[in-house]
Design a protein that fits this description.
Keywords: Hydrolase. The chain has five helices and 14 strands. By secondary structure, the chain is α/β, with parallel strands linked by helices. The protein has a single domain (about 5-240), classed as Ribonuclease Z/Hydroxyacylglutathione hydrolase-like (Metallo-beta-lactamase, Chain A, 4-Layer Sandwich). A seven-stranded mixed β-sheet has the order 6-5-4-3-2-1-14, with helices on one face. It has a seven-stranded mixed β-sheet with strand order 7-8-9-10-11-12-13. It is globular.
Length: about 240
């Protein structure tokens, strides 16, 4: 089983589990990526919420299968002519190709497209695993958690960490609109992951930070997680 993640800047990730490729929050108009959306050919596009900096390039993937809340999949159908979609909600798990995708809670706002329009339902994060999540711990499973845009919330400690058991997590660290380095570090500690990736920073002036602050804050929690600060379009192998 191979499992690779690639950061394209902001909250945009490609996640490849064996022969199945996911694209999360397509927004390529950011300073970290040099990839044109047409260069990416995912099997599935996952949308955490409807803000323009997460859904901005959705129209470039017409004909691809989308996964989001029913409110967002309906919006995509009405405004982007995207009809191949699965509407799901928090707590649900769907099997997609070689992976299982669980939608989990994120604490954020969720206006569609502009951030001030109709509601996209609950904002979300996604947990992607090569094994179906059950109450029985599986040491052979490889699992990646994309936290979406979120503040710190106790479900990370009470549900996502102990029951979904992510090995790695991508957490927003830019502050202002999401967690900053200190709260994101607490999230990493609560999740008990081996690897932590910062995201959602340095795209716009309000979310400019020093990633060294995040590294220092993770160490201050006592977590053993390795903080990996990826360059734009850089990949990291979780399993092979």
């Amino acid at each position: 089983m191979s499992f690779e993640v690639t950061w394209h800047g902001h909250s945009t990730w490609t996640v490849t589990v064996d022969d199945t490729e996911f694209l999360i929050d397509p927004f390529f108009d950011n300073p970290f990526t040099e990839i044109d959306p047409e260069e990416v050919d995912p099997d599935h596009v996952l949308i955490t919420h409807g803000h323009a900096d997460h859904i901005g390039d959705a129209d470039r993937f017409e004909g691809t299968h989308f996964v989001a809340t029913p409110e967002i999949t309906g919006y995509l159908a009405d405004n982007y002519d995207i009809d191949d979609s699965t509407g799901m909600n928090l707590g649900g798990t769907v099997e997609l190709g070689d992976a299982f995708v669980t939608m989990v809670r994120a604490d954020h706002s969720n206006g569609l497209d502009t951030g001030y329009g109709a509601s996209g339902g609950m904002p979300a994060g996604f947990v992607i695993s090569d094994k179906k999540p059950t109450q029985e711990s599986d040491a052979d499973a490889t699992t990646f958690y994309h936290a979406g845009d979120t503040s710190l919330h106790t479900e990370m400690k009470d549900v996502i960490g102990p029951f979904l058991e992510p090995d790695a997590a991508a957490v927003p660290v830019g502050d202002h609109f999401t967690m900053g380095p200190a709260q994101a570090a607490i999230a990493v500690d609560w999740l008990d992951v081996d690897t932590a990736f910062p995201m959602h920073y340095d795209t716009f002036p309000p979310i400019e930070i020093e990633t060294d602050d995040f590294v220092r804050e993770v160490k201050a929690t006592g977590s053993d997680a390795e903080v990996v600060v990826l360059d734009g379009d850089e990949s990291y192998t979780l399993a092979e």
